[in-house]
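Why does residue order matter? Because the sequence determines the fold. Keep that principle in mind as you read this record.
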Amino acid sequence: MAFQEERVRRSNAFAFALLRASRDDPRVDEAMEATLRFDLNGRMVESKIYSDMDRANVLGVIPRIWETPSIEIELEHAVIYFYNFMMPHLYHYIQVYDKRTGQTHTEKHYSGGPQWGNRGESWWSTYRYQLEAFVDKVRGREPPHWVTLDSSIAQMETIDAIYEKSGLGKRQPTPESVDPPRV
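Structure:
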């Protein structure tokens, strides 16, 4: 998201952040819920985030594999839902609901695409594409996609602000050796 990173970074407002701390270490978040609001050229955009890394197995034994990371983006005329964006090479779908027509269509893309063209294999993970882009950059080539320094900093500032708003506080650098907490 290379669009107006500076403006987004200065304009974000964190309306809400709630955490559930780990039972083993209260300095670690086990679950986090947050609502962010961004002013983009005078239009308020709201983003809701929920993550839970300690969901119990169903009946104590069945992992919740159907709850893979997903994202839903609501726009003026459409709702886009991307299921399993973290490991799309295993299985994923992108569902687009058109609010004007009431129609929904689903897409799956396992390699290539508008930026990568014929480059890539169906079994490549998102991390492989990141590695390919890194190699291109190191070798002086222009990668099909690159996350800018400003975008990376804006993402980290957003994460820091969520931790601050939740009461857990900004994540501090980890010292060379960490003693386990005394409970």
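The first strand starts at residue 13 and ends at 21.
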